[in-house]
Amino acid sequence: MSERPPRPVPGWIARSAQPAPAGRAAVSRAPAIAAAMRAPSPAVGLGLDSAAVRARMAQRLEAAGIAHPGVLHAMATVERHRFVDSGLVNQAYEDTSLPIGLGQTISKPSVVARMIELLLNSEAGKAGLGRVLEIGTGCGYQAAVLAMVAKEVYSIERLRGLHEKARNNLRPWRLANAHLILGDGMQGFASGAPYAGIICAAGGAAVPDAWCDQLAVGGRLVAPVVVSAGKQALLVIDKSSHGFKQSVLEAVNFVPLKSGIA
Prior knowledge:
Elements: H1 30-37, H2 51-63, H3 69-77, E1 98-101, E2 104-106, H4 109-120, H5 123-126, E3 131-135, H6 141-149, E4 152-157, H7 160-170, E5 178-182, E6 195-200, H8 209-214, E7 215-228, E8 231-240, E9 243-252
Parallel strand pairs: 3-4, 3-6, 4-5, 6-7
Antiparallel strand pairs: 1-2, 7-8, 8-9
Helix pairs in contact: 2-3, 3-6
């Protein structure tokens, strides 16, 4: 894990950042982020910079069962085509995963929306989602969506190349509440704990103990896990003062969860 600087540059995405003081009032970020997302698009001419394209995607997500207004607004705001390679931008708003390099993928919009909605429907999320830990930054797309619905986002990536790609992808929007970390996601990020939500974008055989330890009481963890014969399903873990409650949901297909920094 990279050494933590004493302070992040104001309004910038740092490799890591000091956690926000517990109990600090949440500040609405949606208008500022929405304005930033309206910056000139590198894909002008393909029509992908149009808000109508994203609105249609959000409508399809709603028709498929996504109901949380915050999730639908975030999905309709964040420009997914900015996070994929130029040769794939025409597929950016299809409900499909796409390669982002180093053997990794950007998740389907429906999966991103589903997992974030699960966080928001938790006990902690219903009161206003506070600090969130994302395991597997990838290209930074899900971190950008999370930044619209959570008070603060800590996103950790083990692959240096993707960490740098995410920094470059997110740099134009200067999301002060999103902090990118290069490190071993299986260890979590204790310096930012406890987290109201933890979300993972890679499937492992089990959930690491570190994640459960770093989850706040009332918080929820959403991650893919291997359930049988290599098949994966979404696992939801809710933490209360009495312990943990687990729920296994629908089948999913994520890249494998790995440890170490590469």
